[in-house]
Design a protein that fits this description.
By secondary structure, the chain is mainly α. The protein has a domain of 119 residues. 54% of the residues lie in helices and 0% in strands. Helix 6 crosses helix 7. It is globular, with a radius of gyration of 16 Å.
């Protein structure tokens, strides 16, 4: 299945924030709702237990919005990796970052951190999705929750894992060092599902 075919299955809204295509939910929209449900179930965990500080920036000034953005990126990437493989999830996630990246010097200065955050969370999601059978949706959800509880996701600008002075550039997405992502959450051995490792080449 190529990327164009995958997009047609997920629904064009995965790459179009404009018109709604139909009255029924696309898989992409359904996963967004499921990510919101996961976030709501973890709200108390965020406020009382998460190692992450409460966000102070304007973009994610509400802890629920900050956590939901991080969880949504991880969950969506996990679902795509689970169903279509890591290379497809990497290509689609990178394309989204290219398309929604900050434009102009002022936005680059203020919002480049957000691109790094998204790339990190996408990688966490891909690892989770590639380690879970397509028949075990609940396991995937529990691993996303555990990744949040363990502090594996980035939600706020002040997170020390975001390089100081990081600036987004088109090449920084495709060249993102996935090996820099360290996880505390324990994942199933992906070789159980015939996956030898998490390395991949972005399809051209």
């Amino acid at each position: 299945m190529n990327l164009k075919e995958i997009l047609s299955v997920l629904g064009e809204k995965a790459f179009d924030n404009g018109k709604k295509l139909s009255f029924s939910l696309t898989p992409y929209e359904k996963w967004q709702q499921e990510a919101a449900d996961i976030t709501r179930s973890l709200d108390l965990v965020y406020k009382e237990q998460s190692p992450l500080p409460l966000p102070q920036n304007k973009k994610y000034g509400d802890p629920l919005l900050a956590s939901n953005n991080a969880i949504t990126h991880a969950y969506m990437s996990a679902k795509i990796a689970q169903l279509y493989g890591v290379p497809a999830a990497k290509a689609l996630g990178d394309e989204r970052e290219y398309r929604e990246s900050p434009k102009g010097e002022n936005k680059l200065r203020k919002e480049s951190w957000d691109v790094y955050k998204d790339m990190w969370n996408n990688e966490v999601g891909r690892r989770i999705g590639s380690s879970v059978s397509i028949f075990d949706e609940q396991k995937l959800i529990e691993l996303i929750k555990d990744a949040w509880r363990q502090g594996d996701l980035i939600a706020v600008r002040s997170d020390g894992r975001i390089p100081k002075g990081y600036r987004y550039s088109p090449g920084s997405v495709s060249n993102f060092d996935t090996d820099s992502v360290r996880m505390k959450a324990k994942l199933p051995d992906p070789r159980v599902h015939g996956i030898s490792n998490w390395s991949y080449v972005v399809p051209r």
